[in-house]
Amino acid sequence: MAELSDYPPFQLGKPRFEQTSFYGRFRHFLDIIDPRTLFVSESRLKEAVQLLEDYKHGTLPPGVTNKELWGAQKIKQAIIHPDTNETIFMPFRMSGYIPFGTPIVVGLLLPNQTLASTVFWQWLNQSHNACVNYANRNATKPSPTSKFIQGYLGAVISAVSIAVGLNVLVQRANKFTPATRLLIQRFVPFPAVASANICNVVLMRHTELEEGIDVLDNNGNIVGSSRIAAKHALLETALTRVVLPMPILVLPPIIMSILEKTSLLRSRPRMILPVQSLVCLAAFGLALPLAISLFPQMSEIETSRLEPEIAMATTSKTVVYNKGLTNVFDLLHAHVIETSCSAVRRVTYSSIKFIHHEYLPL
Hints:
- By secondary structure, this protein is mainly α.
- It folds into 3 domains: about 80 residues, no CATH class; about 190 residues, no CATH class; about 55 residues, no CATH class.
- The protein is about 55% helix and about 5% strand.
- The strands form 2 sheets. Strands 1-2 form a two-stranded antiparallel sheet.
- A hairpin with a 5-residue loop joins strand 1 and strand 2.
- Helix 7 packs antiparallel against helix 9.
- The longest helix is centred in the middle third of the chain and has 28 residues.
């Protein structure tokens, strides 16, 4: 019975866990960021791909279990880009986001940073994010390269400017003691990264404010394209992009400020960096899926609040829209979304085309 609940009847291209509950989304994201898929061999990958092809064509060998099918889909989705069918470079896979991103987080949170080191770690973080975004982009309708470059440059400039500016202000604040100054400096990466995230969202999605985004009725039918819904989606996404990095960039400084006062680290200062690395890894690995599981992908809005032509086009009192770059780990390799609204069971691929294969980078 336990295996039946963990491995329900297989559905090609759909999430293994129920997406209408926080627990289901949390387990789903844990599955997606599982770093064990980084060590899958080429032969094992080919077996997984072939097993899914057999399922698709109704030629499965006898005795194949749901567990094996879900495992095969997990492997393929972690390694193969669904649009190009090419292998994604390991550091830029979603399963590699935490192991390859943790050293950057450690670097961002290093104490007593110089101007050069601050610029370097902020640049490296935004560069890693840009590579992850590009490697997992929607290749069915390619976006202009200039759009990625625009978002990248905006994120780098805003992150570096905020980080450097705050560090200079803290260093010049004479009323702070050295210990207080050091503690405040540890929290500088968060506002820098948060501002970069907002800048990136605005630059990458500003055209939606002019063109609008699709809104759907209770039956999953597209009612129209709403600029008002696009404004709400952009604001919600910007807000969540500020909230989501918080556990990863705020918790480690708090924890380390406590641990560094213990006799163990006071007598062994060389252990501070390894301990900080472990703290960052734990915060990154646990807090990220917890944070992104909090927010359902679909938002609901009253029809009366939208444009008159949309309100007149449907009898539904509310419609739903996809927020976009928020909880997108569950959309990276799926063309169907299970929404948080029980009345909506189907979302067409065209309604999520603008967020397919996008990450939620720090």
